[in-house]
Amino acid sequence: MMEEESTREPVPVNEHELLRAATNALSSDFPNPERLGCPEASTLKAIAGRRLTFSEIDDLVDHIATCSPCFTAYSIYRKDHCFGRNVKRFAAGSVLAILIAASYLGFKALSPTVRAPVTVAEVAPLTAVLDFQNTTPERSVEASAPGPRNIPHLSRSLLNLQVRLPLGTEDGLYSLQFRDSSGAVEAETTGKAGWDGSAETLPARIDLRTIDPGPYKLAVRKGASSWRQYSLFID
After folding, report:
1. Buried b / exposed e along 83-107 (16+ C-beta atoms within 10 A)
2. pLDDT band at 153 (very low <50, low <70, confident <90, very high)
3. Burial environment of residue 220 by CB neighbours within 10 A (0 to 12, 13 to 18, 19 or more)
4. pLDDT (tens digit, 9 = 90+) per residue, 138-149?
5. Cβ atoms within 10 A of the Cβ of 35, count?
6. CA proximity to 193, closest of 225, 161, 217
7. I need a labelling partner for 126 at 20 to 30 A (CA). Which of 3, 4, 16, 138 fits?
8. Which residues, other chains included, contact 69 with Cβ-Cβ below 8 Å and sequence gap of 6+?
9. Which residues pair with 222 in a beta bridge?
């Protein structure tokens, strides 16, 4: 004799179960080691601290829901915020976390057989050398002067850069920015310069796949010193 179908109503998943399920899955499902498209830490802290409205961060919810580092950081900031303020009703203060978790679970439900987007770690970077040893840099406070006639070219790829800086450049940690003709920063990274036996070389990884081709300035500076710019062209 067949068993009668159960008529019990499904028990709704409470908030803590939803967040725990999403958190456990997010820790490994969507690695993003190069933090592509990630908001600044200050933005995540502002979201966790409820200093931004939902309308201001609507476009970030899906990213956080499919980026393990961002969700992990958000969770830590949220716990710190709640602990610091001694929140009495955590459920009422976790609406955004539920939205992120629901967005993640919805994404998984709609595309159960689709892999997460290919991450930078899964793409083999190309090696590119920028030789500025005999180039006079221009400081950012100076008027932009025409670049040299034969400026270096880079491809729009994930790159392992080897930037050869002018003689006399100091060792240390440097910031690098790729700026378009209007001065807007289109990509940025950091690297540690050192003498390699023939030149002061600054190695750095940079992803240029999403920027438009055209003339750019590579802006470089150590610490809080002035930016020094070099002309280049991205194909």
Report:
1. eeeeeeeeeeebebbebbbebbbeb
2. very high
3. buried
4. 755 444 444 445
5. 12
6. 161
7. 138
8. 31, 32, 33, 35, 38
9. 174
Q: Strand (E) positions, 37-184? A: 126-131, 138-139, 153-154, 158-165, 172-179
The residue to which tokens 């967040």 are assigned:
19
Q: How far is it, in rounded angstroms, from Cα 4 to Cα 219?
A: 72
Please indicate, yes or no, whether the overall pTM of this predicted structure exceeds 0.85: no
- Whether 191 and 204 have beta carbons less than 8 Å apart is answered as yes
Mean predicted confidence (pLDDT) in 212-221: 94
The crossing angle, in degrees rounded to 10, of helices 68-85 and 15-29 is 140
Which residue is listed with tokens 């940079």? 206
Task: Give the C-alpha distances (Å, rounded to integers) separating 179 from 23, 46, 73, 204, 220.
Answer: 37, 27, 29, 16, 11
**Tens of pLDDT along 47-102?**
877 787 666 776 777 777 778 888 888 778 777 777 665 544 444 445 566 666 66
Contacts 24+ apart (CB under 8 A), 104-108: 104/22, 104/25, 104/26, 104/65, 104/66, 104/71, 105/18, 105/21, 105/22, 107/62, 107/65, 107/66, 108/25, 108/29
Looking up tokens 């770690």 gives 121
> Which three-class secondary structure state does DSSP give residue 28?
helix
Whether the per-residue pLDDT at 219 is higher than 60: the answer is: yes
